[in-house]
Amino acid sequence: MAGQGYLVLIDREDAKKLFSQKEPDYIRNFVDQLTQSKQYRAAQKVLDLTEHWDGIHRCLTDGSLDPDGGEPPLNHAILGGKRLANTQEFVLSFVRPDMTPYVAEALGDVRYDDFHKKYQAISPADYGRPLGEKDFENIWVAFQQVVDFYESGAQELSAIAFAARWR
Fold first, then answer.
1. What is the pTM of this model?
2. Above 90 in pLDDT, residue 2?
3. CB-based burial of residue 21 (10 Å sphere; 0-12 exposed, 13-18 middle, 19+ buried)?
């Protein structure tokens, strides 16, 4: 089942630090520091998706949590992109600054009806909880925040990282 997920706008210096590391524990701790940073939060560089990232990724891809499922650039928005860490407890994927505008544009083209059809096609057994209109509406609201977040990242030509802890 999905755990807490975040999108983080990563500035150039922090991206260099992140890419210089290969140790998953360091990467997890570094990203945890960014998501809790008063500076990052005040600058609205952190988007807390709670568990809604799971449904968003499934609706943007093939209905699974496969990071390669679906088609780019939509499959890059949450779990896709470059995988920097993938353990039983933590996952971190990274969208390069040059890809952020493409992802933002594709996200902006997603329509409510299409997103809703993709949601209805999710396997409840794979999803880990029942599908329902309240769940969908919460995911749709969170998705709109993702669209705005990527548009902001595209304007700044920032990298965007997705981080989640599994339950």
1. 0.95
2. no
3. middle
